Description:
alpha+beta, FAD/NAD(P)-binding domain, 8-stranded mixed sheet, 35% helix, globular, binds flavin-adenine dinucleotide
Amino acid sequence: MRTQVGIVGAGPAGLLLSHLLALRGIESVVVELRSRAYCEARQRAGVLEDGTVRLLRETGLGARLDQQGLEHGGIYLQFAGERHHIDFRELTGGRSVTVYAQTEVVKDLIQQRISDGGVIEFEVTDTEVDHLDTDRPVLRYTRSDGTRCELVCDAIAGCDGFHGICRPVLPDSLLTITEREYPYAWLGILADVAPSTDELIYAHHERGFALHSLRSCTVSRLYLQVGPDESIDNWSDDRIWAELQCRLALPGWRLEQGQVLDKSITPMRSFVATPMRYGRLFLAGDAAHIVPPTGAKGLNLAMADVTALAPALDRLLRGKPELAGSYTATCLDRVWRSTHFSWWMTSMLHRTPGGDDMEMALQLSQLRYVVSSRAGATSLAENYTGYPQLRLHED
Ligand code: FAD
Ligand code: DHB
């Protein structure tokens, strides 16, 4: 079998790449380990930068996003018993973010690819990539009915997330990994209750970080800092709500509780792998880099990578290799900016286990600076709302 671009992974990166390539008349096949239902239900990120929203609209994916996405002009930072608003619109000349769940972005992308006649093979196993240093790289996989398939491609995109098979294929001698693990994790819940706040609340607390986010007028999303090896079995719904009540408490304000619809624990790490290309294999999204979720950047970075990759592959397939040659460098500027911002937000808001009074005092001083200095607040607002979006059509 033959296709132009073989794509491993039907997460936001792989699906959007397939869509952007189709808009350029380039055929692709997406292969995915999980079922469609699993991909569409996996609870993850929720905040889209301005540029990501614009990209989705410009490429015909804005209909449900415009109906259901919730535009947010700021966030609250809470610490030392005070809640302060950071007004993004005022600080950045009108920029905002949109709360629209990753599950919805993935549903929209799958629906669009299928109605455009795109091929997504769900529930494949034993995915392999081969002949990457030739002009005809090969993608092999086994369908759920047991058929072994071999796809001969012009290029392969490794969009298979942090635990995928593509990044480990790069020779050790070529790959540089810069990594940090954090001594904590996030426990996230989805709750059937109206949000108790109009904007997201990022709360610093002596018992650890907490975040109040939302999904709609009737569904809330909340997170708690927990230990890195914490088991979800130790967290009954009552214990989760009690901890959220404690860390988010503010006189005169009430956190409403509801049925917990989903709960999971996510480890936190910063991870950057370079280069993002080996021969005709290109990595994008979590396959190449991970940020801790405190800056709400992971999903946006994955989308930005493939926005650069689509024109690079288009040109490469027409015999012009320059953009493909600069793909890693193009992505890395944004990757490192997001890595720094995510580390900065994380370090300012979380309690290190065994952390001393000095850590606490430095965090509180930094938080006070951010909420009281226009320069400090503007820096947070600029980074949170995102960096200039790559142009869609570079040729
Ligand atoms: P993914 O979404 O991971 O997609 C990769 C796809 O590849 C998956 O569907 C996977 O099943 C598939 N795959 C893997 N191996 C193979 C294989 N061998 N063959 C075929 N397919 C394969 N970001 C935030 O901003 N806020 C958050 O709250 C947040 N929470 C997160 C919670 C979790 C548990 C995780 C893992 C990430 C979270 N993120 C969050 C980060 C954000 O969701 C990711 O950055 C985003 O999903 C990256 O998209 P992607 O397409 O690169 O990778
Ligand atoms: C959400 C996730 C984040 O990582 C974040 O920083 C803000 C909001 C969310 O899932 O809504």
